[in-house]
Amino acid sequence: MMIARILSLAISFVTTIFVARSLGPENYGQLSYAVSFVGLFSFIATLGIDQILFRDLVKYPEKRSTYLGSSFLMRVLAGLVTMIICCITTLLINKDVISNILIFIIASTFIFNAFQIIIYEFQARVQSKYPSLISLIISITLNILKIIIIILGKGIIYLALILLLESILYAVLYLYIYKKKLKESVFAWRYDSAVAKKILHDSWPLIVSNAFATIYARVDQVMIKNMIDASAVGLYDAAVRLTEVWYFIPGIIVSSLFPAIINAKKESDVKYVKRLRYLFLFLLFFSITISVITSVLAKPIVSILYGPAFLGSIAVLQVYIWSNVGTAIGSLCNSYLIAENYRRIVLFSSFISMTANIILNFFMISRFGIVGAAWATFISYILMSLSLFLFKESREMVYRVIRNN
């Protein structure tokens, strides 16, 4: 899974650079805006049920057809409703015909994404290599298609259709490996209203948390488009891409080492705190190092990768890259809070960061442009971490980690 993830990210990153250079800030910004706009509604389509479904497939394998059937129907209906809401919303607030067409196409992916629940059946059976292989194959194929489209001089509408094709291919291939490898049929799936209610009951905190996280991650580009223009979105997204390429590393580190930290708690509370502190210091050192190097080399990095048309991204990158610090520490904090079952703190910190990001973007974009949006993201990440001091449980642990006692 990790190998497939890294290879897919590398291929997508190279392709994105090529696409951005070829389209230029304005056209690339149009496409980025459409993706971000549709992304704002994605939490409705997923219903936050994925982790709950995975848990229940592991706990109740004999009921897999009921859990899969109930989850699938809910995801299909939620996807259809989300697509309709997304399309109506863009018609009400957007007067740009091209943006609306792009959004219509990309919003259609919500229906086909319902088939992604098949992934969790493979994970529950510890056979994740098959979905991972499909992910890698689709990533390579579609990125080649994107390059061909650019070489042929086709526009951003065709690139949006590639995103729709991606969701269709995933649906078809997931169905294929489900039947081929597991010897199962989707026609055996059954909907059960009691199971559906149970899943939704357990998933509602995740729906809220996903809503906060999704809005937080997408709202800046949507606001930039409406407060400035599409070209500004293109310049901003170029810096975001160069920053996000580092995001997966803290996630892998935390997911790999955190089980050892949890096990240490069974042996000794002192050992538990000590390992938390070491991981915290490592993530802090790693993220600050990446941020300093990128800030210093921002000009040659942008010039070489994106070209002269994207020089306006340099100042954004020099600020936005520091959100890596917040991301790294945030991944550790979330893992700790979930492990300790502090769900209300997770929800509150997510709400704080989302609200702060929206308010800061509103004021700072109007005054400082896209650099202001980068500052808004950085500050809201810091506020998310500082919100841990508002709760006694998390505050005491933070003090212990910092003081090494």
How does this model look, in words?
- The chain has about 400 residues and is mainly α.
- It has 2 domains: about 1-220, no CATH class; about 235-405, no CATH class.
- The chain has 19 helices and no strands.
- Helix 1 packs across helix 8.
- It starts with a helix and ends with a helix.
- The relative contact order is 0.11.
- The mean pLDDT is about 80.
Globally, the shape reads globular
Which assembly state applies to the chains in this document? single chain
Termini separation comes to 37 Å
How large, in whole angstroms, is the Cα Rg?
A: 22 Å
Helix content: over 70%
Question: Could you say how many structural domains there are in total?
Answer: 2
> Please, how many helices?
19
Give the biggest beta sheet: none
Briefly note the structural class of the backbone: mainly alpha
- The number of E-state strands comes to 0
Q: SSE order, as H and E?
A: HHHHHHHHHHHHHHHHHHH
Low-pLDDT runs: none
Mean pLDDT level: 82
Strand content: under 5%
